[in-house]
TrEMBL record:
Its cofactor is NAD(+). SUPFAM superfamilies: NAD(P)-binding Rossmann-fold domains. Residues 3-252 form the NAD-dependent epimerase/dehydratase domain. The gene is galE_1. Belongs to the NAD(P)-dependent epimerase/dehydratase family. Pathway: Carbohydrate metabolism; galactose metabolism. Keywords: Carbohydrate metabolism, Isomerase, NAD. Its EC number is 5.1.3.2. This is UDP-glucose 4-epimerase. The keyword Isomerase applies. Pfam families: Epimerase (PF01370). GO terms for molecular function: UDP-glucose 4-epimerase activity. GO terms for biological process: galactose catabolic process via UDP-galactose, Leloir pathway.
Amino acid sequence: MTILVTGGAGYIGSHCVRQLIEAGQKVCVIDNLYRGHREAVPAEASFFQIDLLETERLTEVMKSQRIEKVIHFAALAYVGESVTEPLPYYMNNTAGTVSLLRAMRNSRVSQIVFSSSCATYGIPDQIPVTEESPQSPINPYGWSKLFIEQILNDCSHSYPNFGFIGLRYFNVAGCSHDGALGEDHDPETHLIPNCLRTALGQQSHMTVLGNDYPTDDGTCIRDYVHVEDICSAHLLALNALNPQSSRYYNIGLGQGFSVLDVVKTSERVTGHEIPVEFKPRRPGDPPVLSASNKRISEELGWSPKYTSLEEIIQTAWDWFRTHPEGYRTETAS
Ligand code: UDP
C-alpha cells in the first residue's frame, strides 16, 4: 500500500515522510514547492510537483500510484500573514482540501489524516485545552482549518466508507534527531528559528510581539511539541484510521512557555546572548495555548519522546548552526 503525503516537502511533512519510509511504508509525495524544499524529500519517495487545486492531476496520481491512504499537510500556515492576506488561506487550505477530497473520491481513496490546528480554538475558555473546548478562531488561518474540519465531518456523515483523523497541532518545533532534516521557512516568522538566527548573528535582536498580555511576564504562552513526536502521532493515526474512527486529537505536551522563556532557554542552549526588542502584539495571537493530550495518549497510545523545551531547542540548534542558509547550505557547499 502507498501513502500519499501532501506537503511532503515542507517542514513537518518531510519529517513524516522519513518516519514512514523508516517504518517500511511506500510513500508518494505531492507538493507545489511554493514553500517546500525538494531536497527535503527522501529519494525513496516518489515525487510529483502538483498543486492541491489541480484535481485532475491529483486523481491521476492517486490512481497510477495506487494510493490507499492520505496524510494531508499541505497548507499555508502563518497566522499573521492570514490576517493581512486571508484569501490565499481560504484558497490553498480550504478550497485545496475540497479539491483533494474530490480527487480521493474520484479514485476511491477514502482514508485521510488531516493536519488541523490549535488555532481553531481561538481564545480558549480553559487551559489546558481539551478537544471538547469550543472552537471559535480569531484569525483566518484558524478559520481555514475549522472549515475543513466541518467538511471532513460532513464527508464522514455522508460517505459510508470515508474515515478521517484530524490532529490539532499546538506549536511544532525542533528538527530531526540526527540533524538530517530541518526547519527552513522563507519568510521566517516562527519564534524558535528567529531566536536561533539571532544567536547566529544573522539578525541583531529578537522582536517580541507584545508584552502586555495577561500572563506572568506579559508575553504569549505556547505549548511546544517536537516535530518527530508530531510525526509519530501521524503513524499511530494512520494505523487507527477506519470509517468508525473519525475524530480529532490535540497534540501538545500540556506545558506552556512564554516567549521570554523561549528566549532564555535558547540563550542557555546556544551559549549566545539573544537581545530582545518589544513591539506591539501581532494580530490574531491568543494569549495562552496549551493542550490536554489525554485523548491521544489514551486512545492511540501516543507518548512523546521529547518532553523538555531545552531538548527540543537543542535539536533545532543542531540544524540551524550547521545549516545557516537552510537547505541552500548543502547546495552551496
Ligand atoms: N513571536 C514573537 N516574535 C517572533 C515570532 C513569534 O514574539 O519573532 C511570538 C508570537 O507572537 C507568538 C509566539 O511567539 O505569541 C509563537 O509564535 P510562532 O509564530 O512561533 O507560532 P504560532 O503560535 O503563530 O503558531
